[in-house]
Amino acid sequence: MPQISVNRLQPGIFVSLSGHGWMKHPFLLNRFCLSSERQIQAMREMGIVAVEWDPARSTVAPLPESPAGSASAPEPDFGCAALAGMQDEKRVRLERVRQQREGLARRERQFEQQAVVAGDIFRSLLARPQDAHRHACALVGGIVENLLGTENMVIHLVSQKSREGGLAFHALNVMGLSLMLGKTLRLPDEDMRHLGLGALLHDVGKQDIPPRILRSTQRTAPEEEFYRAHVGYGIKAVSALRALPVPVKNIIACHHEHCDGSGFPNRLVAERIPRLARIAAIANRYDNLCNPFDLREAKAPAEALRQMFRNEAARYDRQMVELFIKTLGVYPPGTFVALSNGSVGMVVETNAADLLHPLVMLYDPDIPRSEALLIDLRDAELSIESALSAAKLPVETVEYLAPRGRLDYLVEGSRN
Q1: Whole-prediction pTM
Q2: Packing angle of the helix pair 79-124, 166-184 (nearest 10 deg)
Q3: Domain HD-GYP, which positions (predicted)?
């Protein structure tokens, strides 16, 4: 970008301070559009005489250059006060970012704890089925109560220590995404609990399938038949839970059925597939597209939704798919985005009440990843210009924003 004298700046000029170091200036962002004279005065106080500017992103032209030798009456120097004020504002904003980062870390711990509980449930189903049932109901019940007791939903992207999510992480994703869609569909309390429990247990039968077959992307006919048997193994695994409601069992039995009759094991068609199973099938497919065993095959959120809507529409309840897409939003968590200031970020949190203004983590090589900026677009003078493909981004950008490659979700209720 070309440079311009600070004396030619005015509000509306888009500037970059990347060369000055993020920690050394009082502004929250390295790249931004000037909005006040106070910002320009703060730059002067820092001793900055010239900055880079972007004519394409500026809304006004620079001030004309002062004629050589021209003299003007001295002005009072308000730079010190302006700089101090900007530094105070930055401290306030950074404190908010710190609180947001702590909130994300708290949710990550919550998700990991839920994964431990889910893993224990799966392992104890045969030996202690009633204990497993009780713990599963408690896990689902807490999440459902949180969702039903609030007006909106917030969908959080959760960063895990391991790239390998395993059965528990997939189960939690499908449960959370299913309940998200269930809330949008305004399901009653009992249906929500059945949906959550069935989604949590939908793949429990995979514990009896060899990992080699589960991970294979090119199964032989016998291997595919063995893989499909996980549905039957799942029903067998919960057979000791005599109090398990039929709708829960039907989610386990029917989460691979397709509305066009191409699914398994019973090739059910359309309305013959139980409603809750149709919901879980959508959540299951979405998570499998985003988090395949081979993460090199992973779809970006928007790509996964596009494939389900355009290429696989006949398989799923169309109205439910449309509501699923609407609920996740234009920019689902995990989406790489280009922002209006030229920065690249990743959506880490979306709120159903304002889908166009999510919480975004910014890529900035000047800032350690552990201290990465989180920008709530509802508060910032920024907007999303487009979604980006990870394949077209530099490796360092992708690894900064999504070091583990997985997309795990925690869905919570919100009163905001």
Answers
A1: 0.85
A2: 110
A3: 147-340
> 166: left (phi > 0), else alpha (psi -120 to 50), else beta?
left
pLDDT digits (tens, 9 = 90+) for 42-74: 888 888 899 999 999 999 999 998 765 555 545
Q: What is the DSSP letter of 194?
A: H
Q: What is the DSSP string of 77-139?
A: --HHHHHHHHHHHHHHHHHHHHHHHHHHHHHHHHHHHHHHHHHHHHHHTTTSHHHHHHHHHHH
Superfamily, domain 92-414: Hypothetical protein af1432 (1.10.3210.10)
Distances 392 to 157, 290, 399 between C-alpha atoms, Å: 21, 17, 13
| pLDDT (tens digit per residue) in 96-143 | 778 888 888 899 899 999 999 999 999 999 899 999 999 999 999 999
β-bridge partners, 32:
15
DSSP string, 313-338: GGGS-HHHHHHHHHHH-SS-TT-EEE
Name the maximum alpha-carbon separation found in the chain: 94
Q: Characterize 397-410 residue by residue with b for buried, 16 or more Cβ atoms within 10 angstroms of its Cβ, and e for exposed.
A: bbebbbeebbbbbb
Domain ranges of the chain: 3-63, 92-414
- For 408, phi and psi rounded to 5 degrees? -115, 145
Cα–Cα distance, 109 to 111 (Å, whole number): 5
**DSSP labels, 159-178:** --S-S--HHHHHHHHHHHHH
